[in-house]
Amino acid sequence: MKIKHVKGDLLKFPEGINYILQSSNGENVMGGGIAKQIKAEIPEMFRADTKHPTPIGEERLGEFSAAGFKRNGVKRVGFNVYGQLLSELSPSGIPTNYKALMRGLMGVKQALKNNYAKRSLWQLKQPDIIIGIPWLMGSGLGGGDFEVVQTIIECVFHDLECTIVYVEWAG
Q: Burial letters for 124-154: b for 16+ Cβ neighbours within 10 Å, e otherwise?
């Protein structure tokens, strides 16, 4: 695993990003932060959230949904990782639930290892896995400690041949 930190707009896919990942609440609300931008610019990810088979709420924690989409002529995949709730606080007293976030990220990693996206209808042709993650994911509106979130991300993906690109908003 390689790690990069860049400034820019995650949804402009800097550094050749072909997968994006966000921490989502389990309540099908993309009303603030980068989620609001994703809902507007990548409605496929919101539809995947809406169509997720697990009922809205606590049952979704630790799961993920995925959506294929094409932007700028390139096929990409977005993952909504259910790591927080709006209506209640996690055991740590904040919306971000670190255990749920870790379980969801482990599911994403397994999906990538199984070539989930490459075998799917999206038929990604990029040989490299370049995952874009919002800088401070789960820490802004989610209230989590980004050092903890970053440690979780890097522990989960450490053995996957990929590049993690943290994208810090520079708008």
A: beeeebbbbbbbbbbbbbbebebeebbebbe
